[in-house]
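In response to the reviewer comment on reproducibility (Comment 2.3), we provide here a single inverse folding case reported in full, input and output, so that an independent group could reproduce the run without further information from us. The structure tokens appear first.
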């Protein structure tokens, strides 16, 4: 026990001298967690708190054009900036490149007349199907000019789909109102009362959004709940920079050979390194989680809410940390130089994070990547943490994530021992 304690103290002293390794283990993941959470939180809230700047050029002077502008404003998604109707598409594009807005809508000059003709035609066809004699109205559908939606190239595809949906909803609302008015006038020969119009058009079924959770909680997960566990895992595995380099230095300096001449063995050194760096991974968890709990609220970011099963969080952190330590030692055992250890270790961690769901959500992965994704230990770490933080589960609920992670860790341990034996280091 005394030998193990002395070896742990030695490893801690070596670690404190590795300034670059400490930066990769603590500073880099903290910066990533803060920056990416802030950016993603702004993205999450863009539809309910922030509004997308929109240039609106209404070349139409009719009633339908005015109603369409009101419908777009009612969507609540846009910060509308009305511009003069005499500006053409090139001038509007110049304003968008000048960052005045990322979206622009151009309503054509004949929108009202063509839309009203189209709606009268639809109403006439509906009444004719009811067996009523009505005047034939020529449809304006074929010559109806489309609404032009201009968007800045920086706008992501998901936002474009959202904006297209919002615009189509506004267009449908205007057309439905016109069809309804024409039907009512044809049947009653008087204008549709505003109260009845609002009652018919605004009588929509509400949507009750409920996140699926195991504990029955209805709290909506935020950007912090997603990012803090993810970047904590990333920080754990980036100990490969320090631990892998330490193993390589000991190989090159002959420490393994000298240990054979002493009344001890390298297994003790391996256990010491694993205990030391496992404690470091737990410290990483404590530091990054503390930032999410206490610092984020002062930065205007959502607070990290710890799950009810704290024991589960500790056990998952231990297993994830052990897996990260095992992988780092494997890299150090097989690397020939410290440069190889740092390069291969860093690149491999980024790749495993990418295919494991840290950089791109797992559900967005193509089908061909589903099997490869399950080979990444970071995937199982992330799923285990998400089962606790997002789904409100307990330790028993995430065992199907923990068991593969333990299997991968055991595989790393066997590969590590095989490499040491092959190199005659043990």
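Designed residues, in position order:
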């Amino acid at each position: 026990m005394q030998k193990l304690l002395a070896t742990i103290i030695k490893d801690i002293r070596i670690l404190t001298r590795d300034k670059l390794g400490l930066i990769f283990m603590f500073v880099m993941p903290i910066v990533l967690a803060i920056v990416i959470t802030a950016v993603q939180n702004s993205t999450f809230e863009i539809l309910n708190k922030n509004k997308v700047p929109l240039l609106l050029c209404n070349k139409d002077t009719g009633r339908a054009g005015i109603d369409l502008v009101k419908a777009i404003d009612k969507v609540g998604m846009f910060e509308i900036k009305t511009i003069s109707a005499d500006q053409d598409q090139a001038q509007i594009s110049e304003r968008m490149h000048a960052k005045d807005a990322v979206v622009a809508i151009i309503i054509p000059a004949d929108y009202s007349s063509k839309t009203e003709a189209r709606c009268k035609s639809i109403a006439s066809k509906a009444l004719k199907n009811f067996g009523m004699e009505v005047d034939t109205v020529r449809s304006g559908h074929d010559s109806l000019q489309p609404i032009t939606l201009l968007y800045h190239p920086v706008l992501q595809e998901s936002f474009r789909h959202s904006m297209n949906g919002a615009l189509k909803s506004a267009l449908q609302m205007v057309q439905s109102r016109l069809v309804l008015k024409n039907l009512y006038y044809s049947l009653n020969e008087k204008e549709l009362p505003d109260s009845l119009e609002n009652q018919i058009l605004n009588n929509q079924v509400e949507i009750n959004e409920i996140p699926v959770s195991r504990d029955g909680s209805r709290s909506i997960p935020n950007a912090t709940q997603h990012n803090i566990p993810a970047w904590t895992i990333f920080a754990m595995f980036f100990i490969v920079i320090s631990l892998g380099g330490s193993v390589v230095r000991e190989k090159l300096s002959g420490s393994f050979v000298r240990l054979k001449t002493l009344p001890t063995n390298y297994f003790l050194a391996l256990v010491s390194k694993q205990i030391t760096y496992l404690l470091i991974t737990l410290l990483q968890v404590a530091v990054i989680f503390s930032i999410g709990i206490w610092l984020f609220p002062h930065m205007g970011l959502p607070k990290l809410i710890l799950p009810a099963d704290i024991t589960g969080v500790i056990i998952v952190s231990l297993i994830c940390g052990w897996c990260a330590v095992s992988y780092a030692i494997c890299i150090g055992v097989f690397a020939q130089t410290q440069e190889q250890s740092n390069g291969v270790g860093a690149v491999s961690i980024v790749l495993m994070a990418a295919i494991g769901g840290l950089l791109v959500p797992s559900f967005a992965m193509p089908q061909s990547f589903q099997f490869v994704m399950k080979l990444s230990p970071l995937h199982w770490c992330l799923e285990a943490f998400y089962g606790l933080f997002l789904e409100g589960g307990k330790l028993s609920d995430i065992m199907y994530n923990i068991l593969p992670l333990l299997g991968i860790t055991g595989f790393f341990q066997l590969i590590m021992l095989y490499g040491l034996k092959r190199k005659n280091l043990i």
